[in-house]
Protein 1
Amino acid sequence: MSERINLIWLEGQDCAGCTISVKQASNPTLIDVLAGALPPLRGLYLVYHPTLMFEWGDDAARVIVDAIDGRYDPFVMILEGAIPDERRAGDGVFCVIGEYEGNVLKLDEIVERLAKRCAAAVAVGTCASYGGVPHGNPNPTGARGLLDFLGKGWKGALGLPVICVPGCPPRADNIIQTLGHAVLAARGVSPPPELDEMHRPRSLYGATAHELCSICGFYSGGTDAHAFGERGCLGALGCKGIITNCNASSSWMDGYGGCTETGVPCFGCAHPDFPDPPTSPFFAKAPASAFVKETFAGTVGHIKMGLARLRRRKI
Ligand code: SF4
Ligand code: SF4
């Protein structure tokens, strides 16, 4: 049950925002997980994290070299940030994660080598999942996410494909719950997370930000905000919740926050195409087709619900 499982968290082309996010996790907290407060998740060791680990220099780089040699098996590889195409770098290099005995450790090579023996691979954030900000047009470094880099058919030692937790950054509990679910699956305590076609856990990304939006009543009632601070749906101000699968529109942590809940339009940061269209321009309305589809489905739904309310109730 508590067999040791190592966590190796790499940072590539990133801003460390996902790391800042995961530190806010509350259900459960990162400390509870790493301190072994939750029996089914005991035995997890964060052996490598460039921002959070104590080791630095050669001592830190040695963990990666040893992991490639199998000394940290079994381990889960977690990637934050995108992976550049080093062939475009000419005589230079785009993304180095360290140096060991005079050799540079290029991100793309390290990911490729760790992927050969990791138990599972989790892409945290939109950059790691699909390329995100570094991949945005014109994408000078040829950045891409782990799903594209390893391929949709890739599977880790546990038989799981790349698991994506998009968001820029993702909601903290989405990160920790996905990692926890992968570990529980590894230990045979739960079935593996069910993933959608973009490799997101359906339990967390199965609905759009619009469907879960706490101010969706304004949309249904036809009240639009036309300036920031006005009461109303934020669709006219560029909200992309209607085209983005994400559960952060009504709560960020512990029932507090949530993007649209705080009056900020959803920017579609968890969308696979972010920050390119259709998520941008950020303050332009989402594509009309999304609203046509939603209006049609909503009208049919309202009629059905109205008729159901008129039928005699059977107990
Ligand atoms: S368009 Fe945005 S603000 Fe309006 S209901 Fe949908 S998610 Fe909420
Ligand atoms: S609700 Fe929208 S802006 Fe907020 S985290 Fe989700 S995708 Fe990003």
Protein 2
Amino acid sequence: MIAVTDNSIGYDPFSAEVMANPLPFYAQLRREAPVLFLEKYDSFVFSRFQDIVDVMTTPGNAFVASESTLPTVDTLLRHNHGVVPEVPMDPIPPGPLLGSPHFEVLRTAHMRPFRPTQVRTMASFIQRLCDQRLDALLPGRQFDLTQDYGGFVAAGTICHMFGMPANQAAEVLQLVNDLSRTDKEGGANDVPTIIGTCVAMMIESITRRREAGADGANPLIDGLIGLQYYGRPLSDVEVATQLVCAFIGGTETVPKIAAHGLMELARHPQQLAEVRADLAGNVPLAVEEMIRFCAPAQWFARTAHRDLTVAGVDVRKGQRVIALFGSAARDEAEFGEADRFIWNRSIDRVLSFGAGPHYCIGIHLARLELKILVETFLRRVGSFSFDMDKAIRLPSSFQWGWNSLPVFAEGA
Ligand code: HEM
């Protein structure tokens, strides 16, 4: 395959116009320019499902997110000319910036709470959060399904995992929202300052765990405190740095998927009736389609650490690859009628949680939260409809999801 160099389609991940609705751009890219070379960013953009699998699973540290999984426009505008910038190792950077085996050492140190058996133990806690939220929200009949319901449940779960007081959930939610919030032109907030505030909050938890002896009672934090990474322990800031992704990823994505997924069911009354016919049996299947159809993360990047050929195109050391996960989810070659929401669609594989070494550490927790959020809502709410005139889906450089979905809900 030859990469297309003429960007007459006008795709640019940082364009507010594109990110106001990237789907038509993706469809055209998949058809006419499945690998697009963006000269100004020295980057290859992949839009087809199978090509993205090939890119993300290329072995041997060929592609590493050493310039960040989500590089800024300024980073991409600087070309590497065959020399990959080294990642400074002191202080220890976030694991996802590193290749094997460094990345796996850091990931494994806080992997335990994300394993299926550990995640299952959180079911009753999450169920309680969902019920408490609906107890508070349903009497008012009208609320923001993304923020007031899923947002609080996801942020409450993160507080629980981080050993933070439950009443910090609102603050966590606000911070994470500020992080991805953009104005209508796509302008971002002050990301470094917001991340700094997240790190400061996490450091309070890390300090408490050190004082308590970091005996493993909080496996998320204690595993990293106990890690001897190449002969020395991690500082508090270094521990927090490893956890930023879970703090943000764990708060941000699930609420948008749950709210959008329920909105799709409301738009398709026949499908809603079918799901309602057996909630326990059908919701897990419907959740898989929600994850495919509604996942908000649009793209992730890697930098080539050697010359290679992937998905039929030659990539030189120092160039970047941008994988359009948002496009892969709508690839007709993988999903057939991909632009339709079909609750019981048969799905062999998804890319919504990524692929390769960086695939989402929170995959089991995300599925559990979504299942409980959706099932509890459908069990406790008799009828519901959305005020789409007031719904908000802001352009952002990499997230495209319903930031706010006002719902009218009548208790069952
Ligand atoms: C349905 C909800 C979720 C979706 C769709 C999702 C999606 C993703 C994707 C696509 C990646 C890969 C990024 C890349 O390749 O660079 C990722 C990574 C990650 N996710 Fe999620 N995520 C979700 C929920 C969560 C939750 C609940 C948590 C934690 C509480 C979480 C924590 C992480 C972390 C820590 C990583 C980085 C993994 C690593 O590099 O080791 N995510 N997620």
